[in-house]
Design a protein that fits this description.
single chain, 121 residues, alpha/beta, Double Stranded RNA Binding Domain, 3 helices, 5 strands, globular
Length: 121
């Protein structure tokens, strides 16, 4: 194999890896939630989720979402109630925490665990 042929093969392989691992392959997450005053917690949850789990993409498109994260705040903002659903709308996690960051970490852990257990195509 000539150096030129090797360089072309190596470049092709590298581009294949880059394309395969592109951000388009990141799991897409729809974030929802409410607080006791009727406001939305989605913005705050999304920001924290992307910080603790940068391998996810936040989306507003329900049809393209691989997961849905719902965070509801209990009275007095002391309890963060969190549920995570997969693309089939099946519950994969439900729990409580005391911080938004804790809720984001729990959601990230649940999604990563589900991704590992998902069958490969």
């Amino acid at each position: 194999m000539t150096i030129k042929a090797f360089a072309i093969s190596a470049t092709t392989l590298l581009l294949s890896v880059i394309i395969y691992a592109s951000p388009a392959d990141k799991p897409k997450v729809l974030v929802q939630g409410t607080d006791p005053g009727g406001g939305s917690t989605a913005s705050e949850t999304s920001g924290n989720l992307i910080k603790v789990c940068p391998d996810l993409t936040i989306t507003l498109d329900r049809d393209k979402a691989d997961y849905t994260v719902v965070r509801d705040v209990g009275s007095g903002w002391k309890v963060q109630k969190l549920t995570v659903f997969n693309h089939n709308r099946e519950l994969i996690y439900a729990g409580n925490t005391h911080t938004v960051t804790g809720a984001a970490k729990d959601a990230c852990t649940a999604i990563r665990k589900d991704l590992k257990s998902a069958p490969t195509h």
